[in-house]
Amino acid sequence: MEKLKTKKILITFILVFLTSSCNSSNKTFLLRGTFACKELPFDSMVFDPENDYTFYYYYEDLQGNSKLDKGTFLRKSESKYIIKSSVFKNIGITYKNSGFKIMINEKAYYFKQIDAIPGIQTNYESRKFNYEKNSKFTSLFKHLNFFNLN
Hints:
Layout: H1 2-22, E1 33-36, E2 44-48, E3 54-60, E4 66-75, E5 80-84, E6 89-94, E7 99-104, E8 107-115, H2 131-134, H3 136-142
Antiparallel strand pairs: 1-2, 1-8, 2-3, 3-4, 4-5, 5-6, 7-8
């Protein structure tokens, strides 16, 4: 009888421990992967903790030239990180719900994770896109004479 009582107590203790650890709200979030912003369709941020916590920011400048800002990031607490690069000088972000807000040109933008794998692009700055040549919309209306008022 004593053995059965001890087994019941031990099983109860194990079940309570397992269920309490499964329902823990203190989940660790590691900032990793590729992030995009709806308001900035040509911008993306990549966080690669396996490569010495390297940070990449792919964006277009005001003239439409592809740019790359490369730096590092470090973890300050459970969900707070600091980005260090030429564009983002010690900028703090809070990573939660698979995304974060960040200030760019004095405006707040929300970047959401689109892939858990860091998508690092090579030769990003050397890419040129000819909008005039590659735009279907532009080439369609070049050949139509509907708008010719003469």
